[in-house]
Structure formats: C-alpha cells, structure tokens
Design brief:
The protein is α/β, with parallel strands linked by helices. 40% of the residues lie in helices and 23% in strands. Helix 7 links the parallel strand 7 and strand 8 (212-216). It is globular and about 55 Å long. The termini are far apart. 36% of the residues are buried. The structure holds adenosine-5'-triphosphate. One of its GO terms (molecular function) is ATP binding. Residues 23-260 form the ABC transporter domain. It comes from Chelativorans intermedius.
C-alpha cells in the first residue's frame, strides 16, 4: 500500500463524530463586513439520511453550504466532517475529505464546452490519476447509475433537457463514490414530474449506496416526500429541525406559513378539509 493509499484508507475509517454524525457544525458564525449572516449556528447530519435544508430567501443557506465546503471563511465555530475538524487538517488531509464529498451546484453548473462524459471526469482528473480508457468506463457507469441513456455521454449540456442536465450533474457529483453529496436546489427549474423523478433517484442512491444527502431546497414536494429530516434556517441559525411531521405541527410563524400555508395545502390537504 502506498503512503497516499494508506492515508486515504485512514481517512475513510476516521470515526464519525459519535452516533454516526457525518457532518457537524457547531457554533458557526459567518460575517461579511458588518453583516452577520450566520450566528452561533449548529447542525448535525447523520450518515445515510436525506437532510432537507430550507429557509426564506437570503437567510444564508448558500453561505452555510459554501462555508462547509471551505469556500467562505467563518468568524468562529467548528465544522467537523467524518469526525475531523476541518480547520485542523493539512492540505493532504483536506483533499482526502474533499474526495469523499460530491457537490451539485445550483443550475447544474456543467462545463458547457465539455461533453457529459468529460464533465463527469472532471473530479476524477482533479483527484486521481487513471488511464483514459478506465476513466471512460467509470464515467459511463455513472451515466447509467443516474438513469441517463449511454448516448447522452457524448452530448454537450446544450443538447440536454433540464432534467438530463440535473442527472448529469448528479453523475459528476458521484464521480468519486462520495459518502455525502451536497445538492443546491436540485429540482429548481424542473417540472413536477421531472422533480419527482429526481427525488426518486436521490432516494434510490440513499437506499442502495447508503449515500448521505444534504439538500438545499425550496421544493415542498421534495421536503415532504424525499427528506428524512428537515432543518429550517432563520434568525441566522437553525431555527427548527425534525421530520416532515414535526414541521406540520410546528407553530414557529415562518415554518407554519411555509408548511401549512395556502401553497402547502395544495400538496398536503389538511385532514379536516
Ligand atoms: N460573498 C458575499 N459577500 C457579501 N455578502 C454576501 C456574500 N454571499 C452572500 N452574502 C449575503 O449573505 C446573505 C445570505 O445569502 P445566501 O445566498 O446564502 O442566501 P440563501 O438563503 O441561499 O438565499 P436564496 O434562497 O435566495 O438562494 C445575503 O444577505 C447575501 O447578500
């Protein structure tokens, strides 16, 4: 075993932060100048769950995601991934952690000049050195995994439908067989059928691969049908967290109007209606 493989193996076996917590944010504060966007925020994400992350526009969902990914600095607090404090990692250790997480950014964010296959290979090229033929085979497996036809592999993003772009972006997020994927508004722009199909795909990944999913979404259907737990961001922190049923019973004003307002009632008819 090479030193690199040994380190990789050590990172894979790193103990979770207790009780199978795969990601833990503790007392996180993020500021831009004098604007405090997140203050003393704490959140646990458990292995193998689909966590839906929701909140009013501008509350800081993207900022938290970017902070977790190390793209935005925090003023204070701790973020642990797989039990490791991200602030204490060497560059090499950080790279090994990064390899275990996949990201689907809002709007798919595929490279328009690359084919689907080449897009899926971007993380492979960044982190591992494989012969082209093997990379092609691995990327094709991912194409099939997300339910795209093999013929889509050589197409460019502009030749794909919105739903196919989301699937291709998910295939790229899964390129390195991550333990956790971060999905930023994955069903936005899809029609309800396309969105439901995407949710089913995510559920299948959780069930068959034990994938942990952190999904930022405004999609009530996704929150109520696909998510095991929901966390609501408000007042610069996680205001409420729990199951869909907990959300339906919660009397916090924003949560109440979101989950039991007019729009919600079209999806979940109230029992006494
Ligand atoms: N790079 C930045 N510099 C300064 N302020 C920023 C930066 N990024 C985000 N913000 C501010 O942080 C706040 C939260 O933004 P964020 O994009 O995280 O909200 P959001 O909850 O994801 O909203 P939406 O649901 O509309 O996507 C906003 O007030 C935004 O202006």
């Amino acid at each position: 075993m090479t030193e690199h493989q040994h380190d990789n193996e050590a990172a894979r076996q790193a103990p979770a932060g207790g009780d199978d917590i795969i990601l833990q944010a503790e007392g996180v504060t993020v500021r831009f100048g004098t604007n405090t966007v997140l203050e003393n925020l704490s959140l646990d994400v458990y292995r193998g769950e689909i966590l839906g992350f929701v909140g009013a526009s501008g509350t800081g969902k993207s900022v938290l995601l970017r902070t977790i990914l190390g793209l935005v600095p925090k003023a204070s607090g701790t973020i642990r991934m797989f039990g490791r404090n991200l602030a204490e990692l060497s560059d090499q250790e950080r790279m090994l952690i990064d390899m275990r997480q996949g990201v689907l950014f809002q709007h798919g964010a595929l490279f328009s000049a690359l084919t689907v296959l080449e897009n899926i290979q971007v993380p492979m090229r960044e982190y591992i050195d494989l012969p082209k033929k093997l990379m092609d085979e691995l990327a094709l497996l991912k194409v099939e995994l997300v339910g795209l036809p093999r013929a889509a592999a050589n197409k460019y993003p502009s030749e794909l439908s919105g739903g196919m772009i989301k699937r291709a972006a998910l295939a790229r997020a899964l390129a390195l067989d991550p333990d956790i994927v971060f999905l930023d508004e994955p069903t936005s722009g899809l029609d309800p059928i396309g969105a439901a199909e995407f949710d089913e795909l995510v559920i299948k990944m959780r069930d068959t691969m034990g994938l942990t999913v952190y999904m930022v979404t405004h999609d009530l259907d996704s929150l109520l049908t696909a998510c095991d737990r929901i966390a609501v961001l408000g007042q610069k922190r996680v205001l409420v967290e729990g199951t869909a049923q907990d959300m339906m019973q919660c009397d916090e004003p924003w949560v109440k109007s979101y989950f039991r307002g007019k729009r919600a009632r079209r999806i979940v008819p109230s029992e006494d209606a």
